């Protein structure tokens, strides 16, 4: 892979940890791989579970590794935002589990920050599990104006793989910094949907058990949020993707606030163990993170119902949030949640135009 100055939006270590993030002393965010050791794993000697936790907020997502010593095989749960960060993840996996085979990839969902480094593993994994609607979501991205520009830039970068072409840019292995700043195509190599398996089982909400983990790793999709959550390690570790954020404001891109509230309530019931969120530090169920999440969604529901159909603003939404949620990173993005909720309340069959909503959001005057 060509080295590119500035690729990956800096370094994880340079990102600040949100003040509102709840951190377990034994599992702080490290920009690296951490092995989780719940007591239940003592009874499952064959399985080791790791989480790759990053600093920062948006685009600094988490990943997971489930290793079967018996088979010397790995299930990877999500890749990271781009090839640079995903490459670091894979290097740490190789150091921790030298010689292990990467067999399975599970995508908790198909937002770009959880799939951007996919091209680094697409020729290694034998099977990929993802929620059924992921395919439509990503195809819609590539059919958008931004997706078309990304595809065009992809061809430009492909040309730069040719040494003769690179000489026109100064030669060597490094792409000029001016080009690296605009050429984001390597982050979004086309996704190989033909390698994705398990559509019918996952899309119907049934459990899919990976043979890799000897019936110990189960995958179950939550349909409304197009999210797959993974339970492993004797059921005492959950990788929940963007169903949960730690100290960072969550976003709903599908469904209503009612749906998000129902998911948070369901996940908070009768379960004990570690939780790896889509963004932010590892948590334990004893910290009641889903109860905190439920409180946020209940607050938004009250704001929406009290405000009615009048126009919201970024500043206005912040003023309506209680301090506990106002102090979350990117709290002003609550505005997007209200828009998506209104969209699906009025037309349940509709799909949110993510790029359109982001453009609308950024057009509001900055705080």
pLDDT under 50 segments (min length 5)? Answer: 1-9, 180-188, 212-216
Q: What is the number of independent domains?
A: 2
Output the CATH topology of the largest domain.
Answer: Metallo-beta-lactamase, Chain A
Number of H- or I-type helical stretches: 12
Q: Structural class of the secondary elements?
A: alpha/beta
Radius of gyration: 21 Å
- Globally, the shape reads globular
Number of strands: 13
Task: Let me know the largest β-sheet.
Answer: 7 strands, mixed
* The CATH homology group name of the largest domain: Ribonuclease Z/Hydroxyacylglutathione hydrolase-like
CATH architecture of the largest domain: 4-Layer Sandwich
Helix content: 25-40%
Main sheet strand line-up: 1-2-3-4-5-6-7
Q: CATH first level of the largest domain: which class?
A: Alpha Beta
Structure explained in plain terms:
- The protein is of the alpha/beta class and 367 residues long.
- It folds into 2 domains: 12-292, Ribonuclease Z/Hydroxyacylglutathione hydrolase-like (Metallo-beta-lactamase, Chain A, 4-Layer Sandwich); 296-363, no CATH class.
- Helix content is 33%, strand content 17%.
- The strands form 2 sheets. The chain has a 7-stranded mixed β-sheet. Strands 8-9-10-11-12-13 form a 6-stranded mixed β-sheet.
- Residues 1-9, 180-188 and 212-216 have low confidence and may be disordered.
């Amino acid at each position: 892979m060509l080295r590119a100055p500035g690729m990956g939006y800096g370094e994880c270590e340079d990102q600040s940890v949100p003040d509102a993030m709840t951190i377990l002393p034994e599992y702080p965010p490290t920009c690296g791989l951490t092995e989780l050791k719940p007591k239940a794993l003592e009874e499952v000697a064959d399985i080791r579970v790791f989480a790759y936790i990053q600093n920062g907020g948006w685009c600094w997502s988490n990943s997971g590794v489930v290793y079967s010593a018996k088979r010397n095989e790995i299930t990877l749960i999500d890749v990271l935002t781009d090839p640079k960060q995903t490459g670091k993840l894979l290097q740490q996996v190789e150091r921790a589990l030298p010689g292990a085979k990467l067999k399975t990839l599970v995508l908790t969902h198909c937002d770009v920050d959880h799939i951007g480094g996919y091209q680094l593993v697409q020729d290694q994994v034998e099977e990929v599990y993802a929620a059924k609607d992921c395919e439509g979501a990503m195809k819609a991205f590539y059919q958008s104006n931004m997706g078309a520009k990304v595809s065009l830039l992809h061809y430009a970068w492909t040309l730069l793989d040719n040494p003769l072409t690179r000489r026109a840019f100064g030669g060597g292995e490094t792409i000029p910094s001016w080009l690296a700043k605009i050429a984001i195509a390597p982050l979004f190599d086309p996704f190989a949907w033909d390698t994705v398996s398990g559509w019918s089982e996952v899309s119907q909400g049934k459990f899919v058990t990976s043979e890799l983990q000897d019936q110990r790793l189960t995958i179950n999709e939550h349909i409304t949020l197009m999210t797959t959550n993974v339970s492993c390690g004797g059921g005492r570790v959950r990788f929940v993707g963007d169903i949960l954020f730690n100290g960072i404001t969550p976003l709903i891109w599908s469904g209503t606030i009612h749906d998000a509230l129902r998911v948070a309530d369901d996940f908070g019931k009768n379960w004990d163990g570690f939780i790896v969120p889509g963004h932010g530090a590892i948590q334990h169920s004893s910290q009641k993170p889903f109860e905190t999440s439920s409180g946020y969604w209940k607050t938004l529901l009250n704001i929406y119902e009290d405000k009615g159909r009048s126009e919201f603003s970024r500043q206005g939404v912040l003023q309506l949030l209680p301090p506990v949620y106002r102090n979350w990173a990117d709290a002003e993005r609550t505005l997007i949640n209200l828009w998506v909720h209104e969209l699906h309340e009025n037309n349940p069959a509709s799909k949110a135009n993510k790029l359109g909503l982001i453009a609308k959001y950024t057009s509001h005057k900055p705080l």
